[in-house]
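Homework help board

Subject: predicted structure for assignment chain

Our instructor gave us this sequence and asked us to write out the predicted structure in token form, then describe one feature. I got the tokens but I'm not sure how to describe them. Can anyone check?
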Amino acid sequence: MAGAYDKSVVLSLMDKLSFFGQFTSGEKADLARFEHSVVRVEIGDEIIIQGDDDTSLFVLLKGEAEVTKKEAPGTVLAKLLPGAVLGEISFISKKPRASTVTASTEAMVLKLDQDIMEEVGPTVRDKIKTYLLNLLIKRLDNMNMAILEHMR
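My token output:
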């Protein structure tokens, strides 16, 4: 992954994504100030690697990515578009990565590690945690509906 940074581009991309919908302009600028957290990736770059201990959270700002698992080689479990949140399970649980996420196009991600989460302050942290909680609830609801549908 090669680093690249243009704060105005990052802020423009953030403005288009639902993840940042509850953030004020100042809070988005606070997140965008961490130059090292904005990462440009090339096609085929692995953003997250299954089994790694890294617990950073990623937001796909631009481009597309695919989720795979070692146990199912060649099978794409999900295709991710801008606004997708990556690595939320490890971010919350502090457990190793459960899957691999690979850029399928040139992409840009915002990487939020624990150090950045400490620096941004409680209001931004709470907004991120609330978003993740709602995301996981939505996924659980969708899984429950799929199970019910399968049982019919």
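Reply (TA_rk): Your tokens look well-formed. For the description, you could write something like this. The mean pLDDT is 93. That's the kind of observation they're looking for.
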